[in-house]
């Protein structure tokens, strides 16, 4: 009888322990990472990347391609993320490698950025159509107009002008192509562009970089002595530091310019830290103007800096302190720019829609008023994509 009583108690204890263990497992499940949450939000809002955020037709667009590339990086978690980017590219590239809505004669360096997704797909699938398409962008860069100092014009319609944006649009692609196709001339082109742009746009007093430089000094926005534009635009510097950390992925360890561009990255990131808003932990649209009337905390530039800081620290280009800085800044970015809608999906707010210089019919003068009055968007590709990249790099 005593034996049966002990047996009963043992069975009850075992059952309770099992239930407790199961309950503990269920309640300690890890939260979904921000990279996944934001990618899922994008795909919930649009089942087709090319029509994301209200677009009415597909285009060969640098920002849509960037979002596709960012989401594709999650493909090791679920193949649906890679399929999202591939489906969009396949809708634009036919079996002969012809790319819809791409006009090489415009010599628009923005058109080159989506070619990185062609490289990704060619390496994954071996499909020759991607390789054929790649050739068009290499030929564009072979013939793209340059300044007398050897820097790429931003576009044919912006002669003699180098913009920070263009460094990201073209140089990581050229560096990756150089490695994949054993064509080292493009390494030299990419590093020359990074170094030249730094030299021509640098403000020695702050270490920050002006948005653009006009070699001819003829543009109304250009300083008549230096050719530099008047202000430090947050996203422009974001494009620049992202370009450097991405080019370094492919640049040979013994390349003659490697040490110099790492030094440029270090100095530029140090300068960016000095203008980080101490209250929010984010960065302003016009970097050095703080809470001046009209200025605002801007999401895309903030996300780009976090990506560059985290990746730079991880790869050993930056001081290890940048790993913690990036992690803290990511948390600050979530508090400042992420809101949850009634549908339960996260949205990213306060993203500058677009900023440029010159042009027609409305001439963009590069003034403080110009940068602070351009449209501000929610869930803009140019903010959401670097947010996902920053989340991946910080493992958030």
From TrEMBL:
The keyword Hydrolase applies. One of its GO terms (biological process) is carbohydrate metabolic process. Residues 1-17 form the signal peptide. It comes from Mangrovibacterium marinum. This is Unsaturated rhamnogalacturonyl hydrolase. SUPFAM superfamilies: Six-hairpin glycosidases. Transmembrane segments: none annotated. InterPro entries: 6-hairpin_glycosidase_sf (IPR008928), 6hp_glycosidase-like_sf (IPR012341), Glyco_hydro_88 (IPR010905), PolySaccharide_Degr_Enz (IPR052043). Keywords: Hydrolase, Signal. It comes from the Bacteria. Coiled coil: none annotated. Pfam families: Glyco_hydro_88. GO terms for molecular function: hydrolase activity.
């Amino acid at each position: 009888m005593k034996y049966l009583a002990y047996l009963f108690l043992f069975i009850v204890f075992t059952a309770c322990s099992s239930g407790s263990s199961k309950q503990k497992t269920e309640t300690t499940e890890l939260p979904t990472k921000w990279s996944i949450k934001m990618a899922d939000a994008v795909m919930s809002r649009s089942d087709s990347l090319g029509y994301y955020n209200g677009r009415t037709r597909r285009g060969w667009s640098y920002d849509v391609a960037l979002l596709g590339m960012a989401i594709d990086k999650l493909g090791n978690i679920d193949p649906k993320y890679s399929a999202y980017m591939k489906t969009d590219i396949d809708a634009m590239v036919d079996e002969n490698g012809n790319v819809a809505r791409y006009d090489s004669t415009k010599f628009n360096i923005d058109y080159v950025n989506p070619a990185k997704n062609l490289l990704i797909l060619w390496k994954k699938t071996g499909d020759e159509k991607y390789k054929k398409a790649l050739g068009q962008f290499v030929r564009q860069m072979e013939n793209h107009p340059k300044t007398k100092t050897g820097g790429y014009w931003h576009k044919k319609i912006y002669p003699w002008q180098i913009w920070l944006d263009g460094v990201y649009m073209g140089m990581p692609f050229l560096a990756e192509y150089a490695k994949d196709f054993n064509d080292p001339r493009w390494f030299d082109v990419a590093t020359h562009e990074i170094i030249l742009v730094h030299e021509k746009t640098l403000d020695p007093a702050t270490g920050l970089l002006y948005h653009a430089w006009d070699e001819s000094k003829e543009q109304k926005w250009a300083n008549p002595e230096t050719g530099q534009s008047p202000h430090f635009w947050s996203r422009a510097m974001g494009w620049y530091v992202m370009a450097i950390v991405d080019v370094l992925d492919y640049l040979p360890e013994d390349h003659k310019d490697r040490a110099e561009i790492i030094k440029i990255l270090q100095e530029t990131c140090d300068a960016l830290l000095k203008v980080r808003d101490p209250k929010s932990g984010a960065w302003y649209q016009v970097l050095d103007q703080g809470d001046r009337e009209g200025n605002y905390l801007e999401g895309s530039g903030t996300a780009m800096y976090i990506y560059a800081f985290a990746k730079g620290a991880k790869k050993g280009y930056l001081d290890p302190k940048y790993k913690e800085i990036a992690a803290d800044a990511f948390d600050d970015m979530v508090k400042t720019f992420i809101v949850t809608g009634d549908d339960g999906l996260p949205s990213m707010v306060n993203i500058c829609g677009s900023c440029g210089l010159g042009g027609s019919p409305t001439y963009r003068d590069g003034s403080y008023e110009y940068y602070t009055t351009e449209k501000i968007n929610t869930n803009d590709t140019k903010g959401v994509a670097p947010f996902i990249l920053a989340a991946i790099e910080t493992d958030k």
